[in-house]
Write a structure and sequence with these properties.
Layout (H helix, E strand, L loop, with lengths): L1 H16 L24 H17 L6 H13 L5
Helix pairs in contact: 1-2, 1-3, 2-3
């Protein structure tokens, strides 16, 4: 279950960080938009967001820092509440 969550979040993060596919709305469930799957803790979610942020900054591709910072902030806003 966690692998599927992390894989989904990584796909969204990579597309957002790399200027990927337009219209990523289909990646969000139409039943519960913005909802995080049960069982993921806030700490796990934030760690995943931090990993994507680090990869965005240092993974190549020349992504500007403000874009990586903005993507990280959005990712953390989608994490479950504390």
């Amino acid at each position: 279950m966690r692998v599927a969550i992390i894989a989904g979040l990584m796909a969204v993060g990579l597309m957002a960080g790399c200027g990927g596919a337009e219209g990523g709305e289909e990646l969000v469930s139409q039943e519960d938009p913005g909802q995080v799957e049960q069982g993921v803790t806030r700490a796990e979610c934030i760690n995943t967001c931090d990993s994507w942020w680090y990869q965005c900054l240092y993974g190549g591709g020349g992504t500007p820092r403000y874009t990586c910072d903005s993507n990280r902030a959005y990712c953390i806003s989608q994490c479950p509440p504390a």
